[in-house]
């Protein structure tokens, strides 16, 4: 069992992870529309990561004998002005996710809910990696912006990204 406050907060985060997936599918669509199939693939793989994150919260709630509650979600942004804009927004989104994970950790810490704290430690490490991935990608797309040939090669490279469920 968990407190009502923590159950609600974890549920909110589970739904936000699903929303993150929604945001990345919208980014994939924009990339596909702009003849960047490799970038589109990159974001679709990212959506698989987000679903994995959501299900981690889902399974944690079940283990704690609490009920995951699915909610509707707002519309994601579908329009972007450039690839740089896409990655700026993706990085901004991940920073927001990190802030949410930290707030969850604050609640778990206040309640001395050690199992939740342990589960959240995994997410804190994961968010460091996510921000690292997106800030690296943003630096790369800023460097190649306007160089069609380099974008073409980067797009080919990104087409090979695969989703590997992270080790527990
Ligand atoms: Fe996530």
Tell me what you see in this structure.
The structure is a single chain. The chain has 168 residues and is mainly alpha-helical. The protein has a single domain (4-158), classed as Ferritin (Up-down Bundle). Helix content is 76%, strand content 0%. The chain contains five helices and no strands. α1 (4-33) packs antiparallel against α3 (83-110), α2 packs parallel to α5 and α3 (83-110) runs antiparallel to α4 (114-144). The model has no long low-confidence stretch (mean pLDDT 96). Fe (ii) ion binds next to α1 and α2.
Compact summary:
With 168 residues, the chain is mostly helical. The protein has helices at residues 4-33, 37-63, 83-110, 114-144, 148-158. It has one domain (4-158): Ferritin, core subunit, four-helix bundle (Ferritin), CATH 1.20.1260.10.
Features:
single chain, 168 residues, mainly alpha, Ferritin, elongated, binds fe (ii) ion
Task: Spell out the blueprint of helices and strands.
Layout: H1 4-33, H2 37-63, H3 83-110, H4 114-144, H5 148-158
Helix pairs in contact: 1-2, 1-3, 2-5, 3-4
The structure holds fe (ii) ion.
Fe (ii) ion is lined by residues 17, 20, 50, 53, 97.
């Amino acid at each position: 069992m968990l407190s009502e406050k923590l159950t609600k907060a974890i549920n909110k985060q589970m739904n936000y992870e699903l929303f993150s997936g929604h945001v990345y599918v919208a980014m994939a669509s924009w990339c596909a529309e702009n003849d960047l199939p490799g970038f589109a693939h990159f974001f679709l793989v990212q959506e698989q990561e987000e679903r994995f994150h959501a299900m981690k919260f889902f399974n944690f709630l079940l283990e704690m004998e609490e009920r995951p509650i699915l909610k509707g979600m707002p519309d994601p942004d579908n329009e972007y002005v450039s690839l740089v804009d896409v990655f700026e927004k993706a990085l901004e989104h991940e920073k927001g996710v990190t802030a949410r994970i930290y707030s969850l950790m604050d609640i778990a810490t206040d309640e001395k809910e050690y199992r939740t704290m342990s589960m959240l430690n995994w997410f804190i490490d994961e968010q460091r990696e996510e921000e690292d991935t997106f800030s690296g990608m943003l630096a790369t797309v800023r460097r190649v912006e306007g160089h069609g040939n380099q974008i073409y090669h980067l797009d080919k490279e990104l087409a090979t990204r695969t989703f590997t469920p992270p080790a527990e």
